[in-house]
Amino acid sequence: MLHTNSSGDGPSSQVKSRPEILRLAGGGELTGHMWVLTTKLWTDLLAQQGLRTEEVTVLDAPEEGNHASYRLFQVRRPARITSRPRTAQPPVAHATVGVGAVLVGPDGLLLGRHRRGTVELPGGTVEPGESLQETVVRELAEETGLHADPADVRVLGMLLDQVGGVVRITFGALVTRWRGEPADQPGERIGDWGWWPLDALPSGLFECSAQILTAWRPDLPIDHPPARFTPFAEPHGAGRDTAGQVGT
Predict the structure, then answer these.
(1) Residue 175 bridge partners (DSSP)
(2) Interatomic CA distance for residues 10 and 156, integer angstroms
(3) Whole-prediction pTM value?
């Protein structure tokens, strides 16, 4: 490709043809329009067509006083990269998302006993299409018979840990107002609901409930496996970092 003509006119940085005089071998001249572009511009244009420039050789005119110079481009079209289709089989579950609700009344903290023996906060798994506040309200009604409004549910933050190769995400929430009295509900796995003073909480707390409680009240003397806590609202008590470690 012509880079500089014999008169010394160099390349253009715009894709626009210009008249060039072509000297014929048998004598005489012929004027034609040519694209005389910079090396970078040619490289970019070739790349737009899927060609990769690997080497550019400079070819200058051998005669003294002849400014003609050409560029010889060695280009290659890279092999296409293939992709693998998705499998039709559903992925193996590797994460679970749940909520736990903190309700504190005049007589203390609301806790129930699971049929496997652990003591737990009301809560459960987030269902498709639900907000976290809606999950708290639904689980609270299903497990305890208490009724609350989503506007009275304040999400405290997110706890993240891993059990048995499954990432466990638990959101702690504080319910500020509710209606009714807690009572065992038919078909539910948690019952024996009662209010416990914060300075006399029972042993055998469910790990998730314990993690939520210490995220809400870091001063509570509860031992449990550590989990990464990211607050959404200011927990009770001293200020926390945006990502704190809740541990024993």
Answers:
(1) 153
(2) 68
(3) 0.59
Strand residues in 24-129 grouped as ranges (E): 29-34, 52-60, 69-76, 95-102, 104-105, 108-114, 119-120, 123-125
pLDDT in tens, 48-101: 999 999 999 999 988 888 888 999 999 999 887 778 887 888 777 666 899 999
Q: Residues 33, 19: contact at Cβ < 8 Å?
A: yes
Q: How far apart are CA 200 and CA 203, in angstroms?
A: 9
Asked if 68 and 10 count as a contact pair (C-beta separation under 8 A), the reply is no
> Tens digit of pLDDT for each residue in 10-45?
999 999 999 988 877 777 888 888 999 999 999 999
User: Torsion angle, CA of 177/209/204/248, rounded to 10 degrees?
Assistant: -130
Task: Looking at the chain, list the stretches that DSSP marks H as alpha helix, in order from N- to C-terminal side.
Answer: 39-48, 132-144, 207-216
